[in-house]
Write the structure tokens for this entry.
Amino acid sequence: MSAVDGGRILNPKTAHSQIIGGIAMGIGMALLEETVSDRTGRVVTTSLADYVVAANADVRDIDVLFVGQPDSMTPIGTKGIGELSIVGMAAAIANAVYHATGTRVRSLPISIEKVLGHEDVKRPAFSTGTEQLMR
């Protein structure tokens, strides 16, 4: 379930698809996507064969609820929703993992190795930058 204050929704079908896409991107960011570098700093995940992203099969049925009123600050009452739903997904998934396991994972992607405390198993050769997102 995702509740979105999108102001006046001009095209419900497109808006719904936008939110579902953002949720899929957030799931991918939290659980799958990782930029890996070799010991010289060269990126080795350079294609979609190596860099895993969420697909339709990774996302179950998600209900989207548009709430709120038209925005009085815009001429037709709209708000930008774009990829709004990606914003809280990684934090929500990290919190769910914490509540389920008692382990707080503070770097993305969240993996079983990190949950079990064996973070060295999949650690890239140098920081990917995503570690700063969860601190």
